[in-house]
Design a protein that fits this description.
The complex is a heterodimer of chains A (about 400) and B (about 325). Chain A has 13 helices and 12 strands. Chain A is of the alpha+beta class. Chain A has 2 domains: about 180 residues, no CATH class; about 170 residues, no CATH class. The longest helix of chain A has about 45 residues. Chain B has about 325 residues and is of the alpha/beta class. Chain B is about 30% helix and about 20% strand. The chains are: A alpha+beta (about 400), B alpha/beta (about 325). Chains A and B meet through helix 1, helix 10, helix 11 and helix 13 of A and helix 2 and helix 3 of B.
Chain lengths: ~400, ~325
């Protein structure tokens, strides 16, 4: 039998049982679509997180006490503003060094209140972290030096406290202390599920006075060039270790953060793909099941075909092609649904989704392989049927 | 449908098996077939020898369980003997692999079954063309040949009807066309009228006989109906896995002669035939018709089917 003929025979057989063929395909369709969709969500999430980490600013070096790793307990920072000066000397340019001391606090303006994150910072923050203002001005060196009670609001805080008024020049109360609003940040959106516009920046000196402490939580450095960023980190860590022999310090780059996050999200994507793969496997078992039923149901047809000259191989190929056609059509449909679903999710929900060619290739390859693997046994059974017995079947 | 104008499109090169003159279409020598059922050997055929010559018209008769179906399957190459030698179309079945046996069936044998065995949801012309698919013939030529063959069985106007749109007689005609579209050497018909009423059955038999006479295909018909069997020139009676008689009528329904050339597997058989009436045969005194009847009596008298009356015996209904 010619190959084209075999495809036609298989196609006719599937068309003759449209309902059953469609239901069998459904298992493969769901399996492939979920692989494509879930991998797209996993990949999209990873891409978005990476974008956001990179969006923090380029050549960023974060210096924190303790060892930065997944699952380690935070360490109480021994760093003070004197250490920040020391780091600035190592870097050689105080304008490239930023600090933060952060705490949750309730901001009030008149009758309105908003629980937010208050960050004590230096005037260098916008250049180190690439932040831009929507209105007003940022903190100045003079503000920091004189612990002036001025504040720059994140977009959501500004909206929560002053929904119908210009916040510039207004007074807010942080932990009962009054601050004057001098600027509002441009909106940033969400990052890792956190609203990055929900924050208030005040001079680090004012923050330390507010909370009665001398410490700072961490230091961020914008390295002059990418090549020597590691070396700079080593020098900063060495200087801080000299000043605080009892504490371990870490300097991590965005690339290291991306690496850790990428590993976590890669595992997440893999788990999603594996779950979807199981449904694809179940779809394959369904194909096998239906093919076995089909062989049994068409025993007489097989007997007749053999009587008129079909070789065992002709029969086997016919049933194998039926299985492959089922899974191939199901696979293509599933891919289309998966891509469409991913586009919908990306457009209509906050969950990002990015379609990757490898997930399409994988899903289709697996479904075709499933068709072959799960079609072989029924096909062999059909091919080996004794024509005498097959013709007698009812 | 066919572009050709000739009523019988028989391209000489399409003849699958051109047997040399004198070579039998099928030759069975001491063929036996034993089945293993739950570890017990059951002998369905116990040494059958017979020869089917090209163009012959042979009826194989016997009660159910006699082994005639097994014999049919062996003669058609659907099954292999467990003993003896079986040569179909000049090829020894024992030497053929399953694919070669399939090809042999395709080229040499045409099957007609009691239950028609047409593919449902498939048009008449595609049903007829099915054997040509496995011969690797292109779609256009397949349709031409199938349409021409359907014309020969009187269904040229029903090419694209599906089996469920055809009457039983028409379905069997489609099956006959399918059996003959490959130009086989032998047409094996297993109870071809078994599912048909008598008038339709008669028409189908006439068609088979006409095709046998026209095209030179050997017609081997398995039946338990003595009236049907009596139409054949040669009758082979099978019982208990052995050939009990093998007789040739010079003309159907007239005086029969023994077929000396045919071997007989029954050890108790006489030198010429098992059919010789021995003393004390119950049919011995039946007068003129008893000559024919007597030759078939061992099988005929043991039948328990539709009446064991003498009137039902072959020849008994002769006008």
């Amino acid at each position: 039998m010619r190959v084209a003929e075999a495809w036609r025979v298989a196609w006719d057989a599937l068309r003759a049982n449209r309902m059953r063929s469609a239901l069998t395909m459904l298992g493969v369709i769901i399996g492939v679509a979920s692989v494509v969709l879930l991998v797209a969500i996993g990949t999209g999430t990873k891409q978005k997180v990476e974008q956001q980490v990179e969006g923090l600013g380029s050549n960023l070096l974060l210096v924190v006490p303790g060892k930065l790793d997944v699952g380690t307990a935070p360490v109480v920072s021994p760093l003070t503003l004197k250490d920040v000066d020391a780091v600035s000397r190592v870097v050689g340019d105080p304008g490239r060094v930023a600090v933060t001391i952060a705490s949750g606090a309730t901001a009030r303006a008149g009758a309105r209140a908003d629980f937010t994150t208050v960050q004590g910072v230096l005037e260098t923050t916008p250049s180190v972290f690439t932040r831009s203002l929507a209105r007003g001005r940022y903190l100045t060196g003079a503000d920091v030096d004189t612990s002036r009670r001025v504040a720059v609001l994140g977009a959501s805080v500004a909206h929560a406290l002053f929904p119908d008024r210009d916040p510039l020049g207004q007074q807010i109360a942080l932990a009962g202390v009054r601050f004057r609003v001098i600027g509002v940040f441009a909106p940033l959106g969400q990052s890792l599920g956190v609203d990055r516009d929900d924050e208030v920046h005040i001079p680090v000196t004012a923050a330390q006075r507010l909370w009665g402490t001398q410490r700072v939580d961490g230091i961020a450095v914008k390295a002059p060039d990418r090549e020597r960023i590691g070396e700079l980190g080593d020098r900063i860590v060495a200087e801080l270790s000299r000043r605080h022999p009892d504490t371990e310090f870490s300097a991590v780059t965005q690339q290291q953060i991306l690496g850790v996050l990428g590993d976590i999200l890669g595992v997440l994507t893999g788990v999603l793909a594996a779950i979807a793969g199981i449904s694809l496997l179940v779809g394959g078992v369904g194909v096998s099941n239906i093919m076995l039923v089909s062989v049994r149901e068409r025993t007489r047809e097989i007997g007749l075909r053999k009587a008129v000259g079909a070789r065992p191989r002709d029969i086997g190929v016919q049933f194998l092609l039926e299985a492959v056609l089922l899974t191939a059509i199901g696979g293509l449909t599933g891919m289309a649904l998966g891509v469409g679903g991913a586009l919908l999710v990306d457009a209509l929900s906050p969950i990002p989704a990015a379609i990757t060619w490898w997930s399409l290739a994988l899903a289709f390859g697996v479904s075709a392989a499933v068709g072959i693997v799960f079609g072989v046994v029924p096909a062999q059974r059909a091919g080996r049927l004794d024509p005498v017995v097959a013709l007698r079947a009812e | 449908m066919s572009a050709r104008s000739e009523p019988v499109p028989r391209a000489p090169q399409s003849r699958a098996v051109t047997l040399p003159v004198g070579v039998p279409a099928i030759e069975a020598v001491d063929v036996s077939r034993t089945y293993q059922l739950d570890g017990v050997s059951v002998a369905a055929l116990r040494g059958v020898s017979l020869t089917i010559d090209p163009g012959e018209y042979v009826a194989v008769v016997g009660p159910s369980g006699s082994g005639k179906s097994t014999l049919m399957h062996l003669l058609g190459g659907l099954d292999r003997p467990t003993g003896g030698r079986l040569v179909i179309g000049g090829r020894d079945v024992a030497t053929l692999s399953p694919p070669e046996l399939a090809t042999l069936r395709n080229e040499t044998i045409g099957f007609v079954f009691q239950a028609f065995h047409l593919l449902p949801r498939t048009s008449a012309v595609d049903n007829v063309a099915l054997p040509l698919v496995y011969r690797g013939i292109g779609a256009r030529q397949r349709r031409e040949r199938a349409a021409a063959m359907l014309g020969r069985v009187g269904l040229g106007h029903r090419l694209d009807h599906r089996p469920n749109q055809l009457s039983g007689g028409e379905q069997q005609r489609v099956a006959i066309a399918r059996a003959l579209v490959t130009d086989p050497a032998v047409l094996l018909a297993d109870e071809p009228t078994g599912n048909l009423d008598s008038a339709t059955g008669e028409a189908v038999l006439e068609l088979l006989e006409r095709l046998n006479a026209e095209s030179g295909v050997a017609l081997v018909m398995v039946t338990h109906d003595q009236e049907v069997a009596a139409r054949a020139r040669r009758q082979i009676a099978v019982r208990d896995g052995r050939v009990r008689s093998d007789t040739i009528h010079d003309r159907p329904l007239s005086g029969a002669v023994d077929r000396p050339a045919t071997l007989d597997g029954a050890p108790s058989a006489g030198p010429r035939s098992v059919s010789g009436s021995g003393p004390g045969r119950p049919s011995g005194g039946s007068g003129g018709a008893a000559g024919a009847t007597g030759r078939l009596s061992p099988a005929a008298l043991d039948r328990t089917g539709e009446g064991g009356h003498g009137d039902d015996l072959p020849g008994g209904g002769e006008p």
